[in-house]
Each structure stands twice: as C-alpha cells, then as structure tokens.
Specification:
Elements: H1 25-38, H2 43-64, H3 69-100, H4 104-109, E1 113-120, E2 125-127, E3 131-132, E4 135-136, E5 140-151, E6 157-169, H5 170-186, H6 191-200, H7 204-208, E7 220-228, E8 240-243, E9 250-253, H8 257-272, H9 278-289, H10 297-305, H11 316-327, H12 341-344, H13 349-366, H14 371-388, H15 395-409, H16 417-442, H17 447-471, E10 473-475, H18 478-502, H19 507-533, E11 538-540, H20 544-565, H21 569-584, H22 587-594, E12 601-605, E13 614-617, E14 623-626, H23 632-642, E15 646-647, E16 650-652, H24 657-660, H25 663-667, E17 671-672, E18 675-677, H26 684-696, E19 701-703, E20 709-712, E21 715-721, E22 739-744, E23 747-751, H27 757-764, E24 777-779, H28 790-796, E25 800-803, H29 816-824, E26 828-831, H30 832-835, E27 838-841, E28 848-851
Parallel strand pairs: 6-8, 14-16, 15-17, 16-18, 18-19, 23-24, 24-25, 25-26
Antiparallel strand pairs: 1-5, 1-7, 2-5, 3-4, 5-6, 7-8, 7-9, 10-11, 12-13, 12-27, 13-14, 20-21, 21-22, 22-23, 27-28
C-alpha cells in the first residue's frame, strides 16, 4: 500500500523549498556568451582570454579569503564565472579552428572540384522543391558530414577533419539509382548487400526516392563534387560540397554497430506505421525519434502556424515521458511510496538509476547524437533528476549545469536558436510557471488546469519573441493548441516507443501498438490543422531582434493587464470572447468590421506574391478559381477570407509553378468539382504534381478547349484559348495558357493567363474574340510583362486592368511600358504588389474596385 499523503503528487517537501539558487546561472550565461563570440576568434586569442581569466580568478580567490561570508560567496561565484569564461573561450576557439584549418576552406573559396572521403554526421534530409519564378527548384538531399580525406590538385590525398554540408540532386540520383537497382537484383552475388542496404534505409527511398536518404551516421562515402563557401558567415561548416555523381553513394566504410542497430529500429517503426492514416503515419516517427521524412509541407506549415513544431523535433519531453514511466510521478523516486514500472518490477533505486541511464543512452543513439538530441537528453535528464528528488530549489542549478556542460562540449550551440528556445522553455517551466499556477489556484482555477495553463502560457511568453525573429509572425492560437495536444503527446510517445522496441522481434505487435498510437497522433495533427485553418491564427510581426524587443514589451504589457483583469471575471469573459472572434473571424462579422470582401463582389484577385490566383463569385460560398498561385498557404488564406467553401471548377491556365504550386491550398477542406487544364503538358514535373494532387482527393482533371461554354450560378464563361489544334506548336507553356471570357450580372471580364504576343495576336483574330472588345475588366497577361500585343490592348480597351505580381520581384513586373499602354487606352490599372488583394464590384456606371 502506498503511504497516504495530503499533498498532491509531485509537490516538493516543504522543508526542501526555499529561494531559488542562482549561483550557477552567471557562470552558465557567461560561458554561453563567450562561446558565441569566441567561435570566430583564433586559438591564440582564445588561449589568451583563458589565461587572463585564470590569473584573475586566482587573484580573486586569494582575496576572498579575508572577506565576510556573504562577500566570500559573491567572490567565489565571480571566480567561477571567470573560469567558465576561460574554458568556454578555449573550447570555442578549438571548435572554430576545426572549421578553418586544413585544405577544405581554401578549396571552397576557389570553388574547386574535389574528390573526398566524407563521414556522414547525421541523418540526410530531403529539401523539398521550392517555387522560383515560374519554375520549381529540384528536390535535393542535404547530408551533413565531415571530410576525412580530400585529394588536392596533384591527386595526393590529404587527411583532415573538416565539417561540410553535401548537397545531392535527389531526382537525378533517384533515376539513376532505380536503373542500377534493377541491375543489382539480377546479380545473385549482390543480393545480400542489397537486402542489408534496404534494411538500413527502409522507408527512406519510398518517401524521398533517393538512396542517399538511407545513409546512416558514421557511414563513410567517396564523392566527387564542387566545393563552395558556406552561405552564412560564422557557420559550423567550412563549405558546401555539391555532389556531381548522379548515382547512389559509393560507400567505403560501413556505419558503426550502434548506428546499424538504431537504423533497424527506426526502419521497424516506419514499417509498423505504414498502414496508418496519412497524418499518423507521418507524425509518429517524428514524435518518437525525430524522423520527419514523411511530414508533408502542408502539415509542417500547420505545425509552425500553431507553434506546435516542437512536437516534431526530439526534445527533452520525449525522454522525460519515458523516464517518468519508469520512475513514476516526480518527487516520489526516493520515497517509500515511489511508483512507476521499476518498483512494480522489484528494481531497486540504484538499479532504477542505472536503467534510467541506459534508457538515456539508448535515446541518444536511436534519435541520433546530433547537438539537438544531446541538448534534449541533457536538459530532460537533469531536470527530471531534480524533480525526482522533490527538490524544486535544485531545478535551476540543474538547468544551469546542463547549459554550461553543453556549451563547453559543443560551443556551436551558443549560436543555435533551437538551443535558446529549449533553455527558455525549460526556464519558463521552472521559474515562471509555478508562480502563475499558484496564482491561478488562488483565483479558483482547478489545480490540473492551472498547471497546464501556467506551463503553456509561460513557455509561450518567453519563447514568442525568439520565434518572431525567425518567422516574423505571432501565433494567437499557440496556447490553446498546446493545451489541447498536451494530453495526447504522452500516450503517443509511449506507444510509439513501444512499437519501436517491439518491431524487430514482433512486427504484428508493433503494428497493433502503432495503431493505438495513431489515435493520439491523429488528434495532434488534427488540432494543428484546425488551428492553422482559423483566419486569425496568427498576425504578421516585424522580424529581427527589433521585432523581438517590441513583442517582449507587448507581452509584458498584456501580462500586466491580464493580472488586473483576473480579479474581474466579467471583463475576462468579454476579453476572451473578443479574442475568439479575432481568431475565428466569422465571415459576416469580418465583412462588417473590415469591409472585406465587399458585398456583391464579382471577381477577386488574391495577393499571392509573384503568381496568379483569381476567384470568380458563383453564389454564396461558391467560387470558380482560376490559377492557384505559388504558395498553398497564401491562396488558402485568400479563399478563407472570401468565404469560399465550394469550388465547382479550378482552371489552371498552364503548368508553370507560379500558377499551380498552390493547388493543395485550393483543395484543402473544400468541395471541388473538377480541375480544368491546358492540353500543353509541360513542364512534366508540374503536370505530374497536379495529377497527383487531384488523384489524392479524387478530383477529375479535364482539358479546356476553345469554344467550350459553362455556367455556375450567376456566372457563365467561355474558353477562348487554346484552340483544339494549335498551329504552329506553342514555343512554351505561356502561349498555351487557357484564356477565358467571363460574364457576371452584366459585367464582362477577360482573363488572359500568361499569353505572349504570338498567341495574343492569334487570339485577337479568332472568331470568339470580337465579343470581348470593350471588356469591363482585363486580367493582364503574364503579370504585366513587357511582352504584350498593343493591338489586343487597344481592341479590348478595358475600363479596369488588374495585374497580379509580387513586390520587388526579380522580373521587373509589371513593365512601365505595359502600364503606360493600358492607361493610354483609358484603363484604371491596379496591381497586387502595391494595392494588395483586389475585388471587382458592380457593373456599368457603378463599377468599382475594392482593396483589401
């Protein structure tokens, strides 16, 4: 029987409470600052700083012997701070010298082509394609590593130890790898090696298509490529090595036994999650071991928007959950009534400590000994150890010790935003959260809810300014989203670790455990998606440290106001309702307050940067979407603001990325009837992307042909271009753009896609073009570029000309000559880069354009 206690589980013993012990905080902070500054210093300078600090500390130690007890403690603290500064300077100087020494930095400055032997430092990761203008950059694999041997100009190998980042073209590599793999399957002598390679990287190729993604840390590969300097000064790498080989990696040394075991465990977890729903399948490996290879860009964006991205990275909470399962509730580990699995299995306290140490070591190996994992293991272990003793007063010294040791071990952490966020979040939980929790309890909040609210609020208050530096955005739903997922993280993590451990020996059991874990994991993903979908989920904020300072001041002001409001329940309720309305932004209320979208709008041009996305009103909550822009988040936000929930047709004028890459944002959570595209299917990669997205949501894809007419509600339109047989063949996708003539309640609109002069002249001569002379609204072709047919502009003679383009784009869109020609014809010219989103309202003499 457990002893009965009147206190809540986990509360510290009253005699162990006391003022916070801050003596180790100054040495830790001083070492942190010194490491951040000394990484760029030479070894001689670093040693000089250390000698000065050592002498000063010795002199101070001698003098403190004659001081009073209080001053003696201050002197000892200052002397310890000096010693830590010296140690941090030496460590940072040596680590910084590792990046600068050897032949690699010089070769990188010369952009030399080298052959090198590189040891993989951590898991390769896939960098997904990005939209650049009308193209999509190729997917690449980023492989952190250390150059162990490099051949210089005369072919002589030189031994070195220099960190680099390898970049491999994932698509070209995958194509050649597939061909070689087919040959390998026919060779009996290589079957065993192929199976072993598959076991190590199982699941990686299925997700990313490149065998490089299956490489394990500590593997050595031989590569040939071009070196280039690191893009950011003061980075932990000496250069970037872009691999020229198109095939699979040439392995010269297999990974260590520990990494092979970790690789099999991670592959087993992937296999166990293969049959789960998409979100749980992607999320579970990330929750358990930080494997985010399956996380889609859409889901990743949702987690960032709601400040839940920390759940996708290995953190101290992962280890804390597992150790808490072993030790039981914090504060009882050294008492008779201690709980957890260890005492139930008859394991002694000393044996429990050893088992906890083994779990921590296993955690580091399986999750990879990257700096972030080491940071998480150290912070999670020391904080849990302090909690386990029930000595809250020892929590801050434990955190300070962890910071000090980690910075001395890896000074590059001193410049890591992840490290800063980890320390701030942990410090908030140890210092601010307990006081806030006590205050909430005094005001009648239930204890469990008070603790959860205080923890989430404190972490958000301290971390938000740093997040604003990185994202220039502040989430308004972070605290409620974190509260809603908090109870699901522990079961998902525990069941996921259980699946990880059982997968190598009992895959059916692992699949059953993974299925159980999929429920809380799916809940977490659902909360992230729901929070990110809210119109007011976040607000833009100034980036950089100026923005961080402004946000910190705003946070302090809000906290002061909240502190006064807590004594006035009615005012709290009113403020809560106002905050909910600001986040949810009901369409009717938002229209009343902001005037957007204007009542009776007929056409809306979304502000999606350098791209096109236009919406034609087709009834209440219904709209025909013409092009999707380059960014799913931007077009989705525009459609949500317009209140569009049904899309009878999506018209993709052509397959350039700035018109189709945002398609997932259009399809997200909406009823879509069909997707209509041009018949000119280039670029091939973007065509495949559109068909893949449509197939995933079971949306049919049809081809637009000139002469086709359709109607949706008050809207009817005609396809004017391209003709069934375009002669001569278009030179590129632009001249095969779908051009539409649209009527809506007496308003005539002409949408030209990205047509260029040859196609514009042919369109002007086509039979249907005459009906659109003197159109009310013209969506100017190709973002208002200089390539326009002046005869077509004069023939159309629009009253309003709308141009969709990005601010400060590299193409100079819109061209001054095009804007001048439109104005000379009597058109009012508006552009999204200066005017924001645009909406056309009315017709005839009442025609006007509203701006968001």
């Amino acid at each position: 029987m457990h002893a009965v206690s009147g206190r809540r589980l986990g509360d510290a013993h009253p005699r162990q409470e006391g003022p916070a012990d801050l003596r180790l905080v100054p040495p830790a902070l001083a070492a942190w600052a010194t490491a951040a500054l000394a990484l760029d210093a030479s070894v001689a300078v670093a040693v000089g700083i250390a000698l000065v600090c050592l002498v000063a500390a010795a002199v101070l130690s001698v003098r403190t012997g004659v001081l009073s007890a209080r001053r003696r403690w201050a002197g000892v603290t200052f002397a310890a701070t000096l010693l830590c500064v010296g140690a941090a300077a030496v460590s940072a100087g040596l680590h910084g010298a590792d990046v600068r020494r050897g032949p690699v930095p010089g070769l990188a400055r010369e952009y030399a082509i080298v052959t090198a032997e590189v040891e993989i430092g951590s898991d390769p990761r896939l960098r997904r394609p990005k939209v650049s203008g009308d193209r999509v950059t190729a997917a690449t694999v980023l492989v952190p590593g250390v150059v162990r041997r490099v051949e210089v100009r005369d072919g002589t190998p030189v031994a070195t130890r220099t960190p680099v980042l390898m970049i491999v073209d994932a698509e070209a590599d995958a194509r050649e790898a597939d061909a070689r793999e087919a040959d390998a399957r026919e060779a009996d002598a290589r079957e065993a090696d192929a199976r072993e390679a598959d076991a190590r990287g199982k699941g990686a190729r299925a997700e990313g298509g490149s065998p490089w993604l299956g490489l394990l840390p500590s593997t050595r590969v031989r590569v040939t490529g071009r070196l280039a300097p690191a893009t950011v000064g003061g980075d932990r790498i000496a250069g970037v090595l872009r691999v020229r080989d198109g095939g699979p990696p040439s392995v010269v040394a297999e990974p260590s036994a520990a990494q092979r075991m970790a690789g099999r465990l991670r592959a087993g977890l992937r296999e166990a999650t293969d049959g789960l729903p998409a979100d749980a399948r992607a999320l579970l490996p990330g929750l358990v071991v930080g494997d985010t290879g399956r996380i889609t860009p859409e889901l990743d964006e949702a987690f960032k928007e709601t400040d839940l991205a920390h759940t996708l990275a290995v953190s101290g909470s992962n280890l804390t959950i597992i150790l808490a399962l072993l030790l039981g509730p914090p504060g009882l580990a050294q008492r008779v009534e201690r709980r957890g699995l260890a005492p139930r299995l008859g394991i002694s306290l000393r044996g429990t400590a050893l088992l906890g140490g083994g779990l921590t070591l296993g955690f580091v190996v399986v999750c990879r000994p990257d700096p972030s994992v080491l940071r998480a293991a150290a912070c999670g272990a020391v904080v849990l150890l302090a909690l386990a003793t029930g000595r809250r007063r020892s929590l801050l010294p434990a955190l300070a010790t962890a910071v000090l040791l980690l910075v001395l071990f890896d000074p590059w952490l001193a410049r890591s935003y992840g490290f800063l966020l980890s320390v701030l979040a942990t410090g908030a939980l140890l210092t601010v959260a307990p006081h806030w929790s006590t205050g909430l309890r005094r005001r009648g909040v239930p204890p469990r809810l008070a603790e959860a609210l205080a923890a989430a609020g404190a972490a958000q208050a301290l971390c938000a300014p740093v997040v604003a530096v990185l994202s220039a955005r502040v989430s308004l739903v972070a605290v409620p989203c974190n509260l809603l997922v908090e109870f699901a993280v522990a079961p998902a993590t525990v069941l996921g670790f259980a699946a990880l451990v059982t997968a190598p020996v009992a895959m059916p059991v692992a699949k059953a455990l993974a299925w159980c874990a999929s429920w809380p994991a799916g809940w977490i993903a659902g909360i992230a998606r729901a929070g990110a979908a809210l119109p007011g989920a976040g607000v833009n904020w100034p980036g950089g440290w100026t923005g961080a300072l402004l946000l910190a001041l705003a946070t302090v002001a809000v906290l002061l106001v909240v502190r006064r409001l807590l004594w006035r329940p009615w005012l709290c309720a009113v403020c809560g309702v106002l905050l909910v309305l600001a986040v949810v932004q009901p369409p009717r209320l938002a229209r009343v307050l902001t005037g957007w979208p204007p009542p009776g709008w007929r056409l809306a041009m979304c502000d999606v940067g350098q791209g096109d996305a236009t919406v034609l009103a087709a009834g209440d909550g219904t709209g025909v979407v013409v092009d999707a822009g380059p960014d799913p988040a931007l077009v989705d936000r525009c459609l949500r603001t317009l209140g569009i929930i049904r899309v009878p047709l999506v018209v993709l004028t052509h397959f350039h990325a700035d018109h189709v890459a945002g398609l997932p944002g259009v399809l997200r959570g909406r009823e879509v009837g069909a997707i209509e595209t041009t018949g000119f299917e280039e670029p091939v990669g973007q065509v495949e992307f559109v068909r893949r997205e449509a197939a995933a949501r079971k949306v049919p894809v049809v081809r637009a042909v000139a002469g086709e007419r359709r109607r949706a509600g008050p809207l009817d339109w005609e396809v004017l271009w391209p003709p069934p047989r375009q002669t001569p063949e278009p030179e590129g996708p632009n001249d095969a753009s779908v051009a539409l003539g649209v009527r809506s309640g007496g308003l005539r609109m002409l949408l030209l896609g990205d047509l260029e002069p040859p196609a514009q002249r042919a369109l002007a001569r086509s039979p249907g073009a005459g009906r659109w002379r003197g159109a009310d609204v013209l969506k100017v072709a190709h973002h208002g570029s200089a390539y326009q047919d002046p005869d077509l502009i004069r023939a159309v003679a629009p009253r309003v000309a709308l141009i969709s383009c990005g601010a400060d784009n590299l193409y100079g869109h819109p061209a001054p000559s095009t804007v001048a020609a439109l104005r000379a014809g009597g058109a009012r010219v508006l552009r999204t880069d200066r005017d924001g989103a645009l909406a056309v309202v009315g017709a005839g003499g009442a025609l006007r354009v509203a701006r968001d």
